[in-house]
Amino acid sequence: MVVPGCRAEMLQGGVEQVEILPRANLKLMTARLDNSGPPFPQNCICFKPGSIAVEQEGGRYRLVERDAGVNTWILDFGARGEEAGVAAKTIQHYNFNQLCTVGKSADGRGPEMQYFTVDGSSTAAHREGEDAISFDPNLVAARFVQGRWKVVEGADHWMLDFNEREADARRAVEIIKYYNFTRVCYVGRPGAPMMYFTR
Predict the structure, then answer these.
(1) I need a labelling partner for 123 at 20 to 30 A (CA). Which of 76, 100, 117, 177 fits?
(2) What is the pTM of this model?
(3) Are 148 and 162 a contacting pair, CB within 8 Å?
C-alpha cells in the first residue's frame, strides 16, 4: 500500500506467526529513510486510517485495512474484541497513517515498542479516557539494568525492556527524542496489543 508521505523499501525475509501478544504484522514492515524524515531507518506499515476496521475470524480479532476489496491485517488482539474496537477508534481519532515498531525478541514475541505517526510526524492531541503515562523525554535513556537493556526515565521509571538488544534500546531512545514524545499510551493492559506515543 502506498500512502502519500510514506516512501519505503520492503525488508526481505518472513516472520513466523506466534500467538503471544502484542502482535503486529511484521511481514508488512518496511525500512524507511528519506531526507524529509528522521536520520535513521524505521520499520513501518503505512495505511489509510479511514480504511481501518475490526475483523473477527476463528475467535480472533484483528485490526485490518480494507482497501480495494482486500483485507490486510495490521494488529492482532486475540480474543480481545472490545479492545480491538477501541484501537480502531483511536487510530481514526488521531488520523494515524503509519505504524512503526522497534525490536523483536528471539522467541518471536514482539515488538517491544510500537509508535504511530501522522504523515511521519508526531501528534500533540490527546483522547479522553486514554491509558497514558507521562514522561520527560530529556530524562529518557538506554540503561543496562539487572542484566537487561531497558529504556528508562530517570533512575526508577522503566518504560521499555529490550532484553539483550542494546541497539534496539538505543534506537527507541533516539525515536522518543526525535519525535519529542511525552506520553506513552496503551490499549488493553496488561499485555497491551496496542501502544502509541503522543507529545
Answers:
(1) 76
(2) 0.81
(3) yes
Q: What percentage of the chain carries pLDDT values higher than 70?
A: 79
DSSP state of 91: H
Domain locations in the chain?
A: 17-124+131-198
Spatial distance between the Cα atoms of 102 and 38, rounded to a whole number of angstroms: 14
- DSSP-derived letter for residue 11 is P
Place of cell 502509541: 196
Strand partners, 23: 76
pLDDT of residue 118: 96
The span from the CA of 195 to the CA of 60, in Å, is: 19
Q: Cis link prior to 49 (omega < 30° from 0)?
A: no
76-109: pLDDT as tens digits:
999 999 999 999 999 999 999 999 999 875 555 5
